[in-house]
Amino acid sequence: MSKQHAPGFLALVEAAKAQIKEISIDELLSHQEPYVLLDIREDHEWLAGHLPEAMHLGKGIIERDIEQTVPDKKQKIVLYCGGGYRSALSAQTLQQMGYQQVLSLAGGYREWQQRNLPLVKP
Predict the structure, then answer these.
(1) Residue 81 catalytic?
(2) 8, 35, 104, 113: which has the fewest C-beta neighbours closer than 10 Å?
């Protein structure tokens, strides 16, 4: 079930994507450096399944709780959401908070699932 996004939201996401870096699933799978993988989806989305090794920090609280979860602002962080929109917005916000290596997973959970890659189902 694909949801039609509002034009204003899409414009905001495109502006954010111009300011951040994205990482593809293939790049993530071959990535050798340590990173923190953060699922920023809503609680019910997380409970339905998530990527292995991911920690959950929903978009609604990420700005409030990120400094406790990832205190080192030089730590590489990969954010993902359902399709790469919310994670792009959050990546931009974390950069504004001083985080230096924030990436948004292009395609997000949906593409990961479509490719039949491993998932954790609590």
Answers:
(1) yes
(2) 8
- Say if residues 77 and 94 touch (Cβ distance below 8 Å): yes
Q: pTM value?
A: 0.92
CA–CA separation, 29 vs 23, rounded Å? Answer: 10
User: In this structure, what CATH number is given to the domain that contains residue 30?
Assistant: 3.40.250.10
Q: Which pLDDT score, from 0 to 100, does residue 2 have?
A: 53
Tell me the C-alpha distance between 73 and 78, whole Å. Answer: 13
Number of domains in the chain: 1
Closest CA to 102 of 22, 26, 3: 22
Mean pLDDT in residue range 36-55:
97
Inside any domain, residue 50: yes
How far is it, in rounded angstroms, from Cα 19 to Cα 85? 13
39 lies in some domain: yes
Q: What is the mean pLDDT of the chain?
A: 95
Identify the active-site residue in 38, 40, 66, 81. Answer: 81
Q: Is residue 1 part of a domain?
A: no
Whether 61 is covered by a domain: the verdict is yes
| 86 touches 41 (CB < 8 A) | yes
